[in-house]
Amino acid sequence: MSYPGVFCISLDFELHWGCFERMSLNEKEKQYFLNTRALIPEKLNLFASNEIHATWAVVGMLYMKNASAWHQNKPTPLPEFINKNVSAYDWIDAHGFSGDNDPFHFAPDLVDLIRDTPYQEIATHTYAHYFCLEPAQTRNQFYADLEMAVKLAAKNGSTIRSLVFPRNQFNANYLSVCANLGITSVRSSPNIWYWRYGTGSSFKEKFFRAGDAYIKMQPIKPVYLKDIDTKSGLPLQLPSSRLYRAWQPKMKIQNTFKLHRILNEMTVAAKNKAYYHIWWHPHNFGFHPKECMHELEQILDHFKKLNKKYGFQSMSMEEISSLLLKS
Questions:
Q1: CATH number of 6-326
Q2: Which of 251, 234, 244, 257 is nearest to 285 (CA)?
Q3: I need a surface site. Which of 168, 268, 275, 319 has the fewest CB within 10 A?
Q4: 136, 82 contact by CB (below 8 A)
Q5: Whole-prediction pTM value?
C-alpha cells in the first residue's frame, strides 16, 4: 500500500511531575511552569487554526483537581524504586503540595481544553511519570500505574490509544501491558546508537544527541510508514525523528541552525513521502515563550507549504496506528 508523507507532533505534558527530581520549585521555576500553563491555550489555538493533529501524552496525576483527590487516587501496588528520588510519591511526602489546588501538579482544566480542541489526541505519559527502567520496579507495579492513567482518562471522556514512556525509558517487556490496556502505539527513539533512552546516557551519547540538533552528526535512515512493523503485535512502535530544543538567548547561531535542520528534514520527508515525528515538552517553552512560539509558527507555516506542494499530512499517533492497522 502507498502511504502519504506524514508529519507527527507529540508532546510530553508533565508540568513539575516530569522534573521533580531535579527542580525544587524555587520562584524562578514556579514562574517557568506558570508560563507553561498560560501558553498551552495559545498553542492549542495555533494547532487548531492550522489543522495540526497533535498527540498530548499526559501524566495522569494532572487530572487530579486538588491534593485531596491525589491522596485518594493511588494505584496498588506503588512503584518501589531503589532510587527514591525518582518517585513522585516520595517527593510529595517530603515536600508537599503548593496549596490544595497546586498549579504545578494539577491541571484538569488544561487537560479538558486539550480534549475539546479539534484534532488533538489525549495519550498517556503514565500516571506518575513512571520510570520504566529503574531498578526494583516491576511489571505488576507498572501495570497498576498505567491502569490508573487509562481509567482516569476514560472517566474524563478520553480513550487512551497511545503512550510515551517517561524519559524515553523504552521497556520492551512492558509492551504487552500496554496492549492489554488498549494501547495501540508507543513512541520509540530514532534508530541510531546515541538515541537510546535519555536517563543513564553516556557523555558521548549526550554529546552526539545535542550536536545532532544543529548539524548532521551521522546519517539517520529516513522512516517510511510501510517500514513500521505491524506484524509483531500491538502496540506499534512509532519512532521519533527530532526533539525540538527551546530557543536560547545566548545561542543565536545555534537557534538558526536548529530551525533550519528541522525545516530541511521536514522538506526531505515531504518530498519522499516519508514520516517525520517531532516532539517536546510544553514546559520547554516556559523560559522564553515568545521566541519559542515564533519558532513553532515558522515550523507550522513550513508544514502548510509542504502540505500544499507535496500532500504532507498532519496525523496524531493514534491516527497513524489506525491507518497502518487498517492496511
A1: 3.20.20.370
A2: 244
A3: 268
A4: yes
A5: 0.95
